[in-house]
Amino acid sequence: MGDTPAMRVPLMVLVVVAAAAAPVEAQVTLNRFRASETPDDGFQLSRPTDLGHLGMGAQLHLDYANDPLVYERTLGDAETEAAAVVAHQLTATLGFAFGLIDRVVIFAGLPVNLAVTGDDDPLGANAADGTGLGDAHLGARARILGERDDTFGLAGQLTLTFPTGGGTYRGDDFLSFHPELLFEARPEPVRVMVNLGYRIREDQRLAGGVLVGDELTFGLGVAVPVLGNHRDPFHDRVDVHAQIYGAATGGDFFGRETTPLEGSVGAKLHRPSGWVAGLAIGTGMSRGVGSPDVRVVATAGWRTPPEPPPEPDSPVDECPDEE
Q1: Within 10 Å of residue 83's Cβ, how many Cβ atoms?
Q2: pTM for this structure?
Q3: Could you report the average pLDDT of every consecutive run of 10 residues in the chain (323 residues)?
Q4: Gap between the Cα atoms of 157 and 152, Å rounded
């Protein structure tokens, strides 16, 4: 797609993802929500835990974002929003995970864009993509320090993303690599999660000069049980989650347009049978690439339940036999 006069108007600034003004269109993943890898994790944030040897997990995330992609006539002034290039985005992500040697988790996932809609005439930007696949991912997590109930836990994680998506907003046009460190503090009964990583991806220069490329990723979350506790997996548990997560593009660290930041609150139910369900709602805390006005996330999944503790031995009758 070639340059158009609308793309060259100096005051028309695209502050989130839009089509490049070059002959080759930019292709990036608009959705900033990344479904967690196992049912034991938070909604977005990952935990330094495993599934046990040969343990399995499967889950489905549905996330809806409102206005993740808009034009602003004046950069930095939300009151000058002139068009919603993407007004509504609904994505389903199916994920699987498999545990090895009580320390490693292998995981994979595939997002599917069920709806991507926006204004019919988005002021020179490419129109919303509609439906289609997103970028599939494959990765591994290795627990470095700390058993599940120790005071601290640390793990390393690496995710490889494949360009299986299409269109301008559904996926990147090349492989991406995302190494992370996952840390958790466990002052009873709370779990405090910290994720820090760096996503390596191909640079894309968008209309308005916004750069999408390599980025520092970060997240902070807390899970507080309001029913049950984390040390007892054999009874129902309900956790209330609060989390903040975002990214900062390497070429413009913590610039407004290149630093999407979101916050959310929600709750997850964990059943002793391994079933997990949750619901969260959040909002964009900055107007970075893909950061929405409102985001709603629902999830359901299952993991191999933990082995029950051995039953105590039957009491021994030490009375002498009667003759």
Answers
A1: 21
A2: 0.84
A3: 39 34 60 96 97 97 93 63 84 98 97 89 70 95 94 98 86 93 97 97 72 89 96 95 93 74 97 98 89 96 88 58 52
A4: 17
Residue 129 belongs to some domain of the structure: yes
What's the pLDDT score for residue 122? 64
End-to-end CA distance of the chain: 101
Whether residue 310 lies inside any domain: the answer is no
**DSSP 3-state of 301:** strand
* Position 319 in a domain: no
| H or E element that contains 8 | helix 5-8
Q: State the pLDDT at residue 207.
A: 60
Radius of gyration (C-alpha) of the chain in whole angstroms:
23
* Residue 321 within any structural domain of the chain: no
Structure tokens at 266: 């929600």
CA dihedral 196, 201, 207, 210 (to 10 degrees): 30
Instruction: Give the helix/strand (H/E) hosting 5.
Output: helix 5-8
Domain that holds residue 51: 5-303
Query: Which residues contact residue 251 at a Cβ distance below 8 angstroms, ignoring those fewer than 6 apart?
Result: 203, 211, 213, 214, 258
Question: What is the total count of domains within the chain?
Answer: 1
- 297: which residues sit within 8 A by CB, 6+ positions away? 33, 43, 44, 61, 62, 63, 64, 264, 266, 278, 279, 280, 281, 282
